[in-house]
Amino acid sequence: MLQSDYTTSQLDVLEAEAIHIMREVAAEFERPCLLFSGGKDSIVMLRIAEKAFWPAPIPFPLMHVDTGHNFAEVIEFRDRRAAELSARLVVASVQDSIDAGRVAEETGRRASRNRLQTTTLLDAIEEHEFDAVFGGARRDEEKARAKERVFSFRDDFGQWDPKNQRPELWNVYNARIRKGEHIRVFPLSNWTELDIWDYIRREGIEIPSIYFAHTRKVFERDGMLLADADVVNRDEDEPVFETVVRYRTVGDMTCTGAVQSNAATVEEIIAEIAVTRITERGATRADDRSSEAAMEDRKKEGYF
């Protein structure tokens, strides 16, 4: 029977674009890698990489910049998923950077290792001579992202300058770099948080359990619910209580907040996100509650 409906869905278009980008990188660069934290965006990138090169294995390693303060459920998922795919997993440790004197541990109530990741990431890129690094950034996260291209050029210091971005005409990408320079590649640039969840639903992709509603001990700070954990500094005026929460994004426990939610399935999460007016990072990332200019300055220093 001949196919009568040739309509291409939005997810099909986004997936096809991301597959094209990954194949382009694999063809043009010598040592690409994919940043894989075990979070939903990197999980979607991993599924796209599977499809892009199937039935061959993924032709580049996975890398995670591990602060040492990540959620245990996510680290378990990261390791298991990499093993299932027989993928090489490179773990760049912030603790190793601290021990080597490359960065200094923050102290105080709001101490976090999140900002320290930049040095660890750049050191790992230099050590392994990666010339292209896939990131899961989306342009609906914060305004500074919208100034980047799909191929985001970084100089030999790992710095980003919006004035040095190369033009991208349709799907023609400039991959020319000198030794020491590299490109951050964002295959999900045109995706939204809702697109990510729609894709997870369509593909039946497994994700870490903390994305779903569960009971957890938390405390409130600046309108956010942070996990009660040994690595999170909490004052006496921040009482711990138990409630039902889920995480919209995952990262360092010291700056990643939970949201109160009863969404226990992907369908319920999609329904919840469809009506919310607060961005993912605005609701859950304490370190990203800064101005557009401040975020741009962090990116210029080599931040993700």
TrEMBL record:
Keywords for this protein: ATP-binding, Nucleotide-binding, Nucleotidyltransferase, Transferase
Protein name: Sulfate adenylyltransferase subunit 2
Top-level taxon in the UniProt lineage: Bacteria
UniProt-annotated stretches for the region Disordered: 282-304
GO molecular function, one term: nucleotidyltransferase activity
Pfam families reported for this sequence: PAPS_reduct
Enzyme class: transferase
